[in-house]
């Protein structure tokens, strides 16, 4: 390959990589996949990745932290789902475990309670068993652990038996009594 061809391909690959990064942060593996799909050779791809890492534009640790924190606040999920999503981004198990361990403000029980409270309020005219089933499925799909789900459901439905609800109202009493 002619050196000028290599340089022009490298410049185009860098430009494409920067454009990909302008949309959202990416992991090194995601960027590798994007450049490979654009049919850049592995030599060009690795050169671009190395350059972006040197410049601090690609950093898996920073990406993992940003992604995890974003997920906690924008689309709350359980640790299991978060772990799956991070691995899907091409991050190592070691980095994924460390990221999850170092999450700030991550209280799975509180997140589940908050998610259930809003969900529960919207379920009027639905039987207790159906509510439990729907809430369980919703939380399970979000990757929450069974222990947390069952503890929350138990809390929620024992609160409604005492005359309250997850939100402090009395809507469940209406459902059961008419």
Detailed description of the structure:
This protein has 10 helices and no strands. The longest helix has 21 residues, at 3-23. The chain folds into 3 domains: 3-58, Orthogonal Bundle (Arc Repressor Mutant, subunit A); 61-101, no CATH class; 108-177. Helix content is 72%, strand content 0%. The chain is elongated and about 75 Å long. With 178 residues, the chain is mainly α.
Helix content range: over 70%
Query: Any low-confidence stretches, pLDDT <50, length ≥5?
Result: 165-178
Order of helices and strands: HHHHHHHHHH
Provide a count of the helices.
Answer: 10
Overall strand count: 0
Q: Supply the helix-strand structural class.
A: mainly alpha
**Cα shape:** elongated
Largest sheet composition: none
- Give the N-terminus to C-terminus distance in angstroms: 80 Å
Count of spatially separate domains? 3
**Percentage of β-strand residues:** under 5%
- Rg, alpha carbons: 23 Å
Q: Estimate the mean pLDDT confidence.
A: 85
Quick overview:
The chain is mainly alpha-helical and 178 residues long. The protein has 3 domains: 3-58, Arc Repressor Mutant, subunit A; 61-101, no CATH class; 108-177. Helix content is 72%, strand content 0%.
Give the helix/strand layout.
Blueprint: H1 3-23, H2 28-37, H3 42-54, H4 60-74, H5 79-88, H6 93-101, H7 108-121, H8 128-141, H9 146-161, H10 171-177
Looking at this protein, list some descriptive labels.
single chain; 178 residues; mainly alpha; Arc Repressor Mutant, subunit A; 3 domains
């Amino acid at each position: 390959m002619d050196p000028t061809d290599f340089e022009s391909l490298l410049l185009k690959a860098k430009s494409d990589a920067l454009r990909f990064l302008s949309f959202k942060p990416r992991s090194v593996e995601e960027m590798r996949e994007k450049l490979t799909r654009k049919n850049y050779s592995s030599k060009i791809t690795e050169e671009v990745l190395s350059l972006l890492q040197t410049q601090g534009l690609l950093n898996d640790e920073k990406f993992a932290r940003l992604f995890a924190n974003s997920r906690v606040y924008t689309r709350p999920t359980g640790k299991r789902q978060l772990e799956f999503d991070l691995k899907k981004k091409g991050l190592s198990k070691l980095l994924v475990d460390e990221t999850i361990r170092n999450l700030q403000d991550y209280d799975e029980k509180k997140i589940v309670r908050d998610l259930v409270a809003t969900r529960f309020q919207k379920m009027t005219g639905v039987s207790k068993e159906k509510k439990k089933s729907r809430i369980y499925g919703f939380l399970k799909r979000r990757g929450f652990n069974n222990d947390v789900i069952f503890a929350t459901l138990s809390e929620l439905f024992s609160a409604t038996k005492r005359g309250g609800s997850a939100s402090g109202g009395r809507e469940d009493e209406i459902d059961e009594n008419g």
